[in-house]
Every structure is written in structure tokens, then in C-alpha cells.
Amino acid sequence: MAVAAVNALKHAWEYVPASWRGADPCGDGWEGISCNNSRVINVTLSAMGLKGQLPEEISSLSELEILDLSYNKYLSGSLPSSIGNLKKLKNLVLVGCNLSGSIPDSIGSLQRLVFLSLNSNGFSGAVPPSIGTLSNLYWLDLSDNNLNGPIPVSTGTTPGLDMLVNTKHLVLSNNELEGNLDFGASYAGKLQLVDLRNNLISNFTQRPVASKVDIVLVDNPICQEITEATKSYCIDSPTNSSYVTHQRNCVPAKCFSDQISSPNCKCAYPFTGVLLFRDPSFSGLGTSSLYASLENSLLYSFYSLQLPVDSVSLSNPRKGSNEYLELNLGVFPSSQDHFNQTEVSTIDFALANQTFKPPEQFGPFFFMADTYEPFAGQSKPGVSRKSSKSSSTGIIVGATAGGAALLLLLLLAGVYARHRKKSAEERKNPNNGNIETVIGKHGPLALKRYTFSDIKKMTNSLSEKLGQGGYGSVYKGQLLDGRPVAVKVLNESKGNGEDFINEVASISRTSHVNIVTIVGFCLESSKRALIYDFMPNGSLEKFINKKNAALEPSRHLGWDKLYQIAVGVARGLEYLHRGCNTRIVHFDIKPHNILLDEDFCPRISDFGLARLGNRKESIMSMQEARGTIGYIAPEVFNKRFGAASHKSDVYSYGMLILEMAGGRDNDHHDRTEETTSEKFFPNWIYKRLEQGKENEILQGVTAAEEIEIVKKLTIVGLWCIQTNPSDRPSISKVIEMLEG
């Protein structure tokens, strides 16, 4: 039953994870699915780009304890009433989707629920009174929806939110809730925060029992009354840097040595660092309720990872010199006075690799960890980055798999080369086939077919060579109407041309400003050629190497232009991955294959290694390794790292923009002055960051705006080249980062 339910999810959604193959979600290791004795207990697919609706079949997952589909903005439709059948569910997290309709009353059947977060959707109608029966609920967040009507209060026959005696945080802000807010005696429990900002509350009956509760009624009609406007619940918290996490109704402990008292007044060694938010949506430095919601999100994330976390502390919100919002973070242990190395590494990984998702208002973020003092002087996984208190630290991020994993590529490069040689030998004697039959399968092609005699005429007998690669040579040509073209003549092959025609037919039906236009082709016996629009500025390769720029000043592009090129390439990849009818994975993104037109608009070219697939499937079947050493993703030549997919292009793109930022080839191997590991470019750049030698990356860059561009390219590039494909962002996320 569970297998059928998860397969129903697979068929209901587009863009499922690459690892979702095979018949058994538990036995085949589907990403985001956790099992116990072949029963699905956890479905966590946050920010995976899922598109579709939540099917009724999900109710068959009777053992499910955690359902987290947050930040999938294309997940639409209603929340099925059958959700109430998941009797063992503890965490229901659907933040930042596009769900609509009413919240089903059956949600009151989830009696084990601890976290209920349905914020940032389009839910409408009343708040279900049945939520009041969820006696184990710790965190309720229904903010940023279109909910209306009164806040449900219990009567003799119906439940209400006043029955939630174990709830600490109740957030209903940014809705259209109306009427009276009244705290009864039952609220004397654990409640700490009630956030009803921006609703239609007209009256508040304040009782002594609620004196210790942080109540927010800003932007409600009640706060427009003269007698209420000066009350604490109608006043925004100061927008200065004075915010610090409140003590939880306890007296701060007097700690020995260098321990610190936690918000729960326990002495411990917290794991500390700085959170940097690139583009928060709120003005100023925000309010206490926003920071409280961030604390809740952090706690939820750590609890989901089953980490022994007692509490988190935020302090000193400030704007850095780069205009990022910076916050000091402390994470306090619960089981003893310090975390062990594994726990610190897990916390660091969750923050540095974007596993943690903050509230939507905070936007994209990075984390810089301090050295964890209990381990000072030891070798610590995941906490080797030194904290810097200067504004330049924004560039040092944890969004990389680490130097050791990257070094593995050097060793595997030889394996790839041998494998490729063997594959070439096996292709020497392919069978011949009927080309016309192959072409006929596609019906009328949108491209003109040329003879090889035509190719010779338009290129003046292949006289002006523009470039040469491993798969053929490119010549300048001219059509009969005078239109300049680039003609790529592929190396001769005796195959039947089916792959060639499949690719040409599909790519010819694409149309995007950042994809090179194919105007024709030649397939005549063993001779094959592609005719493209001519790109007068050639490839990106000659413009991004600092040595080339020094020799020829005309080859130097400004950083603003390089930034626009980086964004353009990302948009082109997004179109290939998600915008056209057939999902296309390029598999050979590198500077040489990025062509520039007369306005330096980038065009992705050379689809000789591309693979086509159904839009719903993200895995590509690979018979051989493909790509260029220095840009090829690990999983492409070794299945141990995962399946080849659109994330393979993301890896290559990351290498590309790192090369743009650093101004040197990442596959250059003749630097005798560098160590073996530093010859691999990401290791070189990572080492400079780790040693605080940012200036070596920023050579010749002095303007503040240009420094920001270099930092942005570096940060995004490091995020893209993580060894595990599932840790890399989608190309859509990359664009959001670059444009954020």
C-alpha cells in the first residue's frame, strides 16, 4: 500500500528527485523518503521544485510521521480531507507552497501532531475549530494566507484554539481574521507568542494570565483607537540592533568558565556563528515576532534531524557593509553541556548547505560558523572555517562539499579517460542503417537539410576555421542570402545517425534568446554538419582568462557584463531543463561552448553530448561518460555519486562561473608553483577563502559593485559544485540567487 501511495506521488508531480527510480521507494533509496521495516515514516522534499497537486493516495501512508513539502511554490490545489487518516503524523509542514481552498476539518484527527505549519499559501475560509483538539501541538503557524472569520473559541459543544494548552507559538498574522481576542484561564500553559499582526481584530480582552505572553496586534483596527495605540501589543519592536532572544520565564544561570546561559537558563557551550540574509523582504531590522519565527524554524529543523538541541539564541541584528542582514546565532545542547563532533557537523551541514529553510520573509541566506571551543585545537569535521568579524566574511560560505571530496575528481579523471578510449574503440564498427527512415520518424523538420556539397560551397571549401574541438571543427560560412553562419563539421562516423537526428529534431524546436539558433544540418552517409547563426564575438573562453586579457586588452569584459553573461547562461539552462517540451540535459557546459553575439548576449551551443528525456523524469540513462574534464560532474563518470541528471549541468555551470570569478582555467595542469590539490581550481579558490586570502581571488577588482559581483559568482559557484547531486540547487534556484 505504501509503495503504491509513494508511486502515486511520483506520477502526480513533475520534477521529482533523480533518485526516484525502481519500484521500491524504501529498498531503492528514494531521496526524501525514510522507512522503517519497509514502511514509509518520513516524506521530506523541501524546496525540490515539485509541481502538481497532493493526491488523495497520500492518506495510505498510515505509518507516516513527518510530511514536509515546504517551499515547493508550484505545488497547488487543495489539502485533501483524507490527510486526517495519517493518525501517526507528528509534523505537517507545507510552508511556501501554492495550496488553496479551505483547511479541512479532518486535520483535527491528527492527535499526535506537534508541528503544524501551513503558512505562506492561499488557504481561505475559517480556521477549523478542530485544531483546538490537538493537545500535543507545540507550534501552530497559519500566517500569510487568506483565512477569515473569528478566531475559534471553545464552547460547551465545539472546540477552539483556547484549548491548545501545550502550544508555545501561535502565529496567525497576515490574514483577515476578525472579532475579539480573549485569553481564558486555560491559556496559563506554555504559550509564549501570539502573533496576529495585520488582521481585522477589533477588541482584545487582556487578562493577568496572559501577562507573560508576547502578543502582537500591530496593523489591526484595535490599534487605531487612541486608547489602545500606546499599548505594548500595538507597538512595533524597536528596529535597532537591540534584539536578543528572551529568557523563557526563568532566571539566567550563573555559569562557570566560558559557558553561557541558554534561553532556558542552562549553562552550556553553544555552537555559534553568523547568519547572513541576502534579501529580507521586511524593512529596517524587522520586529521581535519575525525573529521569534526564525527561532522556531531553526528549532523545528534541528528537532527534525533528531539533534539534542535545548534552545537557540539570536542577537544583534545588523546591516553589514554589503547590506546583508546579519544575525548572531547560538545553538545550545540539551543532553550535556556541549555537542559532540557529529552533532556539530550535522548542525553546520544543515545551515551551510541550505537544508534549513528560514521563514519566507528572510530570503536566501548563508552561515559562517565559529570554531567550536570545546574542540579547539582538534580536527573537527564541518567546523574548520574560521569566523571573521569583518564585512569581507560574507564570501566565506559552507556551500561546498569540501576539498577532500573535490580532490577525488582528479583521481577519477584518469578512469574517465580510459573509459572514453574504450568507448571510442567500441564505436569503430557500428552497423549501418537507413538514414531516411530515421529522419522520417520525426515528420517534417523545422530545419533545412543541406548536402555536403552545399557545406563546401557555403564555407569556401572549409577555408576559414573558427575553432576545433574533440567532436569536430567549426568554419565560417555564408548562406546564399548573405547571412553569416558557423558550420560545425563533426568527425566522421559510420553510425546510422539516429541519435544525431533525434537531437537535431528536438533542439530545432527550441527557441530561447540564450540558446544558439540552428538553421540547418547535413547528414550524408558518414558526413554530418550543423549550421548555426554566426556569433561574431566567439566563445566566452577567450574573455575570462586573465592572461588573455593582459595580452589583449580588448578581450577584457567588465564585471557587469560578465555578470549578465552568467545570468544569461543560467536562464538558457533553465529553459533546457524546464521550459521546453522535452527536458534537455547538455552535459558539456564550459566556456568554449558559450558563444557571444554582437551584443555579448550568451548563447549555449554544442549539443553533441546532450541527452533528451521526458519532462517528468530527471534521470538520464548514460551508456558512457560524457563531458569535459574540469567541468564534468562526478556522477557522470561514476554512478557511486548518484544518477546523471539536470544537476550534472548545474555542477558544470558552477565550475564555469567559478572560472569567471577567478579568471583562470580550472583544468589547467602546468602550475609547478602550486600543490597538486591546488591545481584543481575549486581547491585553489576554496583554499584562499579558508586562509582569508580573498584578495588573491579579487585581483584587480577594487570597485565595491564589482567586488559584490565576484563574491556572488563565487558563492553561487561553490554551492553548485557539491559532490552529492541532491545537495546542489536547481538552476531556477541559481537564478534566484544571482538576481536576489
UniProtKB/TrEMBL annotation:
Q: Which topology term describes how it sits in the membrane?
A: Single-pass type I membrane protein
Q: Mention any Pfam family matching this sequence.
A: LRR_1
Positions the record marks as coiled coil are none
| InterPro entries associated with the record | Kinase-like_dom_sf (IPR011009), Leu-rich_rpt (IPR001611), LRK10/LRL21-25-like (IPR045874), LRR_dom_sf (IPR032675), Prot_kinase_dom (IPR000719), Protein_kinase_ATP_BS (IPR017441), Ser-Thr/Tyr_kinase_cat_dom (IPR001245), Ser/Thr_kinase_AS (IPR008271)
According to the UniProt record, one GO cellular component term is: membrane
Q: Which residues bind ATP?
A: K488
Give the residue spans that cross the bilayer.
395-417
MF GO annotations: ATP binding; protein serine/threonine kinase activity
Q: Can you say where in the cell this protein is located?
A: Membrane
Looking up PROSITE patterns in the UniProt record yields:
PROTEIN_KINASE_ATP, PROTEIN_KINASE_DOM, PROTEIN_KINASE_ST
Q: Which residues form the Protein kinase domain?
A: 460-740
Record keywords, A-Z: ATP-binding, Glycoprotein, Kinase, Leucine-rich repeat, Membrane, Nucleotide-binding, Repeat, Serine/threonine-protein kinase, Signal, Transferase, Transmembrane, Transmembrane helix
Report if keyword Repeat is assigned: yes
CDD domains, sorted = STKc_IRAK
Q: What is this protein called?
A: Protein kinase domain-containing protein
- Organism, by scientific name, is Turnera subulata
